[in-house]
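Q: what does this look like with pyridoxal-5'-phosphate bound?
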Amino acid sequence: MDSVEYHGKRYVLVALVAVGGNDFMISVQDNVAEVQERIASAAVKSGRQPEDVTLVAVTKTVPPEKIQEALAAGIRHIGENRVQEAVAKAKEMKPGATWHLIGHLQRNKAKLAIQTFDMIHSLDSIRLAKALQKRAEEYDKTIKCLVQVNVTGETTKYGVSPDRLMSLLKKVSLLERLNVRGLMTIAPYTDNPELLRPVFRRLRELAREAEKLKLPGVNMTELSMGMSGDFEIAIEEGATMVRVGTAIFGARSRSETK
Ligand SMILES: *Cc1c(COP(=O)(O)O)cnc(C)c1O
């Protein structure tokens, strides 16, 4: 490390490289390593294996070159919340990554979604399920889905309410092109763990309840919950997939944070 002497004291030189305004240079590679370590220790802390938790790198608003850095650092799963944005980026990237749709899906984009994504985390209505079924038939595919649950009933959030979940699952079970793998939720925006933990716990309990129905084409192996601010708590409560953006790629511009 470089150092200088100044007025009899030795100072270490620290270089801060500014990129585009207030952003400091971030190393995607270092961030991926750090997030993976935090995932591993949260898993171990709760008596699970690090490999029980899949890291989905959330790349909304992130340019393809940065995504490539994440892939080079070992990321295999990419999460996008807009269909068109994902389509544009996928074209620029080497194949091999697994693509997850984590944002709300409109029925008129079902076709593009079927073509682009390996898993849809945001199934939340029978109408959407039927649109996906139709397109999946057309392309002779099956599509892995998670049902998004609005655990807290916040009006600003998409997702089926807990009391309608079982009836939705029963209907979706009849659509043979849809392979339901579990549940997804977005926790309230707060850093108070005492508010978050019960939300994650509730999703796990709902999954257990759903399992008991033993519906064909529906299993509850995956719980997609936890983001940059709360993924450790989510893992402690049973998350098998965490969706992490900011902690890997840095802050998004404010208008794009949804
Ligand atoms: C943006 C987004 C994330 C990632 O959020 P960060 O706080 O940046 O980690 C996760 N899940 C969904 C549904 C998102 O829209």
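DSSP finds nine helices and twelve strands in the chain. Residues 16-22 have pLDDT under 50 and may be disordered.
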